[in-house]
Structures are given as C-alpha cells and as structure tokens.
Design a protein that fits this description.
The structure is a homodimer of 193-residue chains. Chain A has a single domain, classed as NADH Oxidase (3-Layer(aba) Sandwich), CATH 3.40.109.10. Chain A is 42% helix and 13% strand. Chain A is built from eight helices and four strands; from the N terminus they run H-H-E-H-H-H-E-H-H-E-H-E. Chain A has a three-stranded antiparallel sheet with strand order 1-2-3. In chain A, helix 2 crosses helix 6. The radius of gyration of chain A is 18 Å and the shape is globular. The two termini of chain A are 34 Å apart. The interface between A and B is large, with 74 and 74 residues. Strand 4 of chain A pairs parallel with strand 1 of chain B.
C-alpha cells in the first residue's frame, strides 16, 4: 500500500557502513524510469558512485560551498537548520555506501519537473527495499559535474546518498489535509498567507 | 510492489464519465503530502474541481492559448505531437469527472522540486486506486489562478484530470537501464549527445 510506504519513509542523513545489494539501487532506478516526462523525453541520467576517492572529493567540494552558505544564512532558514541539527558538514557524502547523482537533460521540455517526479518514484522504491536517503541539492554543481566528466547539457539536480539508516530521529510533521486541499475555489484561504 | 505499479501506470487523456469516489482522490493527496520538501516547508496546495462550469472555463482558457502554441510548434516537437495524436483540444479538462490543480508556494526553498516530487508520489497512489491522469502543464497559469482566486504567491504547476481510463493506447516505451545509468563517471557517454 503506497500510503503506508509514503508515511513510513523519512529523510535520513546518517548511514550504517553495511553495503546494500546494488540490485536494490537498480530496482529504484528501474522504477524511476517508468515516470512520465515531457514529450516522453526521459531526461534523467543516474550516476552511481561507490568509489571512496570520488565520494571524498564530492564531499570536499560540497562542504567548501556549504560553509559559505551557512555562514550567510539567517532568519527562519537559520532557525530551521539549528533546530534540526543541520550544518555545513555533509558526512553522508563520504560515509554512505553509495551516492546516486541525478541529472536532468536541459534540452528536454519540462526537464526539471519530469526529473523530480521520477525522484518521487525512486524514493518510494528505495523505501520498499528498506534503503534510506536524503534528496540533497548540492550548492556547486559545476565543480562536481566536471569531476566526473558530465557534459554541460546535463544539470545536476540532486545527490542521493544510499544506505541503511543509522538515524533514530522522528519523521518531521506534515500538515493536515484541510490545510492543503480546497474545493473548486481557493475560498478557505488562510488570512496569514 | 512499487515497480509493478510504476510499470503499469501510463498517461491517459480520455476518461469515462463514471465518477470515482472522492476518497480515492484524497488518498492520493494524503500520499503526496508525505513527500519530503525543502526545509519541510510542504509548499503544495491542491484544488479539487468538480464544478462543471469551472471545468468548462478552465478548458476554454487553456485551449485558447494551446491553439497559438500548436500553430507555432515545429521540428521534433511538432512530429511528436502529430505522431501521438495530441492537439490543441483539451477535452479532458471538461470531461474528466475531477481536476486536481497542483500549486507550489513560490516562497519555499526548492518549491518546484518538492512539488513535482510529491506529484510522483501522487501518480503511484492514483494508479493503486485504478485512477488515471495526465500531468498537464497549462500554458496560461495566470488566468486560471485568477478564475479560482488563487493568490500570486502560488504557482500553478500542473492540472491533473482524474477519472477511469477510456483510452486503449499503449504505454510509451522507456529507455533501457544501460542508457541512463553510469558508474562512478560519465565514461560510457554516447557520442550522439
């Protein structure tokens, strides 16, 4: 049942060193590639990384840029980061057994939309295989793409570290249905917004 | 099994007049709202439309703009549209029993990414309930948003007509795994691209 799977699935940033079977990652990508896409272009490409040397380099590239980002963050963003214990350190990039880098072909119509829709498919398939991840959006995609020879027509949309969860945190709360669903018009609109 | 669901799911543009239970649409939205989102902002809003008068108006607004779009389309886009028998007429907007309009709060970080990821969840939940749809991206979102009183901070990302399929077409082909998956580097890169 999809709803149960969606409800049990939560974002994980800490992984056990145990290496999951590669076939389960391929299962998730096989699911993702069934997603619809603009003009059936199927703009997605996936790079699976398990080479420790490359993982370390990706982590270094990201942390350098994250440091600057965190130093400059303020307001509700800063509060959210502090409260959720998120900082510039991205251990998961070198410690997760696998990284899946997700790219979108910039030439495709609705390239970003289609690719993120397929990531939705992928997350549920990973959950089914008891694999955890976070949809990490790296700050400096150009350097990473160059490191692994990715042509400029592909945009790096997300890095998904994959492994078994070593994180006991609770799933963050979701809003109630009546806060997000309206009928026929936006008439029940909350004054705050 | 998620893979089977993803494989059986296909885009549908023609619907039976039979009205599905509203609770199955809400089930799909309940699933969608479990998706992760930037800063857990949950930027999505869903408007369910079954008022025939509003559906007709939305269809008129869209078809007016689609007509111009199709008159100007050329090259591979035009070929794709012709081959798949897609034209400026959007019967499904008035003929599907329900429309779900999906909005993204522009103020949220990664608003578009998060919302399309949640649409991925939604499509699989709809498939589980034997409901069909197409992720239609309307050409003139401003007019539609005004029609149903949606504040400018929300961007209309997609209209999903919902109903039982009355379309016998085959699912469009997907690429093979080895065309979209690479290991550690983009080294198996096809010369064409």
């Amino acid at each position: 049942m999809i709803l149960k799977l969606a409800q049990s699935r939560k974002t994980i940033r800490k992984f056990k060193p145990e290496i999951p079977p590669l076939k389960n990652l391929l299962y998730a990508i096989e699911t993702a590639k069934e997603a619809p896409s603009g003009m059936n272009y199927q703009p997605w490409k996936f790079i699976i990384i398990n080479d420790q040397h490359i993982k370390n380099k990706i982590r270094n590239i990201c942390e350098k840029a994250e440091k600057t980002f965190y130093e400059n963050s303020k307001g509700i963003l800063k509060d959210f980061l502090l409260k959720n214990n998120i900082n510039w350190k991205k251990e998961f990039l070198s410690e997760a057994p696998y990284l899946i880098l997700v790219f979108a072909d910039r030439r495709a119509p609705f390239s970003k939309e289609s690719t993120w829709l397929s990531i939705g498919y992928m997350l549920l398939a990973l959950e089914e295989k008891k694999l955890s991840t976070v949809t990490y959006t790296p700050p400096n995609i150009k350097e990473i793409s160059e490191l692994i020879n990715v042509p400029k027509i592909f945009s790096l949309e997300a890095i998904l570290p994959i492994g078994y969860s070593d994180d006991l945190k609770e799933k963050l709360n979701r809003k109630n249905l009546n806060e997000i669903v309206f009928f026929n018009k936006f008439n029940k609109f909350d004054k705050e917004e």
